[in-house]
Amino acid sequence: MPELNLQDYLAKSISHANWKNIGSKKRAGVLIPLFTVHSKNSYGVGDLRDLKLIIDWAKLTANSIIQLLPMNEVGPLFCPYDALSSFALEPAYLCLKDFPGISGKKFNSLLADADHVDYALKAQKLQLLWNVYLATDLAEALPFEEFQRKNAYWLTDFALFKVLKEYHQGKPWYEWEQDFKYRQTEALREFKQDNIEKITFQMWLQWMLFKQFKEASAYAASNNIFIKGDLPVLVSRDSADVWSHLEFFKLDFAAGAPPDMYASLGQRWGMPTYNWEAIALDNYRYIKEKLKYAQEFYNILRIDHVVGLFRIWSIPYHAPEVNQGLNGVFDPLDEHLWNEHGRKILSVLVENTKMLLCAEDLGVIPKCCTDTLLEFGIPGNDVQRWVKDWNVRHDFLGPGEYRQLAVAILSTHDTTNWKAWWQYEAGTVDAALFMRKCNERKIDFAKVSLKLFDETLSLHGRLRWSKEIDTIDKLLWELGKHKEEAKDFVNFYENTYGEKEKLWKILGCTGAMTEAASDELLAKIIQFILNSRSVFCINSIRDYLGLADIFKGDPYQYRVNVPGTISPKNWSLRLPLGLEELLKHPVNKLIRKMIVDSDRI
């Protein structure tokens, strides 16, 4: 794409009003999940008061954007992208220091230098907060009444949902008794009367969370720091949203993603897809209300899986789960409808918020989505390991070739950190995908893999090419196929063979290439991406702190999430040091210098 005068371009874009508060200057930021941090005053998990320390750190290091993962209340898997509500905040993030009489001593067992959050703390926090609530006189709490009035669209239904879920021993709403499952008026009225204290407690929790988050947002604003939130495109099947608005969801389907070179079976996320026709008949109020509440806290909002607004991979709900995404189709099925479908929803989003919208546009993206984002002035994501010329050079793009209207990133919450990518994934193909392609062509995978790949460097489900297979002809010889019948294998090879050597050269490294990533190599790639022409560059706290000897041992273990897996290690990674210690760490000077040198201040 040719060089844009970004300021002029954005001033004329559909999102021009959303850019006013942010400006078009290049900025640096940090992705830092709140659960990942801790301080002397937090109990087992980062809380909303810790956000102030994160803001202090961002200012110290010249980062002007703090990106959070979704802050919505989570279910038993603690996955922020499978939330119980698109509105309600996670009560584990409440800072208990605001509540007199609560002692941190009860949390000592959860605070010991653990590598991961022990979410048992949530139940402990809630019990303590319940006791505080019972001792609180709300008879004349006018601000609480005002909060309830302003958030009537979602708050009462959410609180009722939470108490009904407890009443049904945690079962999903679709397994409740019929009167509650289908929201029979009289049954709900009687239940509210019998459980008014518990229902009010849930609303009170959300009020407390609202106040703490608003205070943190105000502190960020006073320090010229922008908070970037995250709006999941989907919501959990077992959520207050779905229970309250059955007509807005297609419950016979589960959303996911089609197979690609990184997920051989595709993905099945399980959340229902939207019935956009029903949402439109209600004048998109459900979407507008989400935005209204989110902008209480955020200046910028990431739209997760934005391509899902144009077309979403829709899997029959009762298809075998072992097939993951294989049985899906796109909805809408007719690709001629995708452009109009996505444009309409994006228009609703842009026109109903002051926040600047950014889009997660990773994966196989149709041209209509890319063109619309550019026209609207909505930045996409450029993740370094995937920013390549896939068709001609088969090589990484340089900093001057990144999209201007983009957020440049080294790694995401769903990927390995950059050091782990370099050591284990660069120069590899997905083992399951390669095996499936072999089976489809009746190629003996076990036999050819011994010739094609270096077994000693093939780990974590990835296959590293053998240096002996240094031409396409050698690849085809081992496969026993002509080029015309092995185009996908050739594509894998051209875009992954020698990746490390290619990037080593681009970064200007000298000497023999190293298998592990040194701090110096990480510094080079961070400076590389900071120097990109993308308007924003937001790197994860894991990558920034990889510049110092903070994370010990194998870098692969430091993952926020492994997609497609259920594990207590997902969504629970903690930083090895507290925020107070981080604020004093020598690495901060290096981070600041790199950002200043990239002219992102």
Summarize the entry for a quick read.
By secondary structure, the protein is α/β, with parallel strands linked by helices. Helices cover 39% and strands 11% of the residues.
Mean pLDDT equals 95
Class inferred from helices and paired strands: alpha/beta
Poorly predicted ranges: none
- Level of helix content? 25-40%
Cα gyration radius (Å): 25 Å
* β-sheet strand percentage: 5-15%
Shape: globular
Major sheet: arrangement of strands: 11-8-3-2-1-18-15-12
Q: Span between N and C termini?
A: 25 Å
Q: What is the tally of beta strands?
A: 18
SS element count, helices? 25
- Summarize the main sheet: 8 strands, parallel
